[in-house]
Every structure is written in structure tokens, then in C-alpha cells.
Write a structure and sequence with these properties.
A 4-stranded antiparallel sheet has the order 5-11-7-8, with no helix packed on it. A 3-stranded antiparallel sheet has the order 6-10-9, with no helix packed on it. It has strands spanning 12-14, 20-22, 27-29, 35-37, 61-65, 79-86, 92-96, 99-101, 112-114, 121-127, 137-141. The chain contains no helices and 11 strands.
Length: 142
């Protein structure tokens, strides 16, 4: 179960069948969106934490920046804040004036680049071109 910070969760509880469930904190997510493994190391494991946690990804998110609501154009090649996503996961969808945009490093065919190393969590993209204030921008994380 994933819960928001500071959510009260009982130490243990029985489900409808009488099976007891116990609370254990195995991971946290830091401000950069990285999953921090809190499990103790396995016997003989030289890694401080328990290892890589799989199946944990950024939550779904959505951002809409309507035309005419930004006070200035978005400069090219500068970080622009978006909902948290995993770099390179193909879960980030970006639309400019309703047209799908593609990530990549080639400004001739790609509209933006994802900021960060593949597999890391990020909250920014960089547009290859300046984006004027009169364009709608819609960003979605699947």
C-alpha cells in the first residue's frame, strides 16, 4: 500500500478473513523523485540497503498550461517544470497546441528533451525552441 506522508496507518490490522497484516516501511521517495530503499541488507549483501525496488514508478500526473496564461515565452534549452516522470520510460506525453511532441536530442525532429539519466525520476523537460505564450501545453504522465 502506498500512502501520502503523515498518513496514520495502524501497526497491524485484520482483514475480513481474519488474516493479520503488519505495517512496514520499505521505501520512501525523496524530493528529486528517487525511490530510497529502506530494507535491511540481505545476509552477506554488501549493499547498504536491500537493493533495487522494482515496480515503483512516478504517480500519474497532468499539467495544463493554457494559452495566454503565461507571462513570458518559455526559453529554449532551459528546465521547464512538469509532473514527475521516469526518464526514458515513454510514459511522458507532451502536446503543444494539441499536437503530440516527441522527446529526443535532435532539434530537427524532436521538440523537447527529457532532463536526467534514463531510469531516473525527473520533474523537468527542456524545449528545443522558444515556446510563445499563445500556445496551449498539455503534459500527461501515464
Amino acid at each position: 500500500m502506498v500512502v501520502e506522508p503523515d498518513t496514520e496507518v495502524p501497526f497491524s490490522a485484520a482483514d475480513e478473513t481474519g488474516l493479520m497484516h503488519y505495517r512496514a516501511r520499505i521505501a520512501s521517495i525523496n524530493a528529486q523523485g528517487e525511490v530510497i530503499d529502506l530494507r535491511p541488507p540481505a545476509f552477506g549483501d554488501p549493499v547498504k540497503n536491500g537493493g533495487t525496488l522494482t515496480g515503483l514508478t512516478a504517480p500519474s500526473g497532468e499539467l495544463v498550461s493554457h494559452a495566454g496564461t503565461r507571462t513570458a515565452a518559455i526559453p529554449a534549452n532551459t528546465d521547464w517544470a512538469v509532473p514527475r516522470y521516469e526518464v526514458g520510460s515513454k510514459k511522458l506525453q507532451v502536446f503543444l497546441a494539441g499536437v503530440p511532441c516527441f522527446p529526443g536530442d535532435d532539434p530537427a525532429k524532436d521538440q523537447f528533451r527529457e532532463v536526467g539519466q534514463p531510469g531516473s525520476m525527473s520533474t523537468a523537460i527542456q524545449w528545443h525552441d522558444e515556446i510563445p505564450t499563445d500556445y496551449d501545453i498539455h503534459v500527461r504522465v501515464k
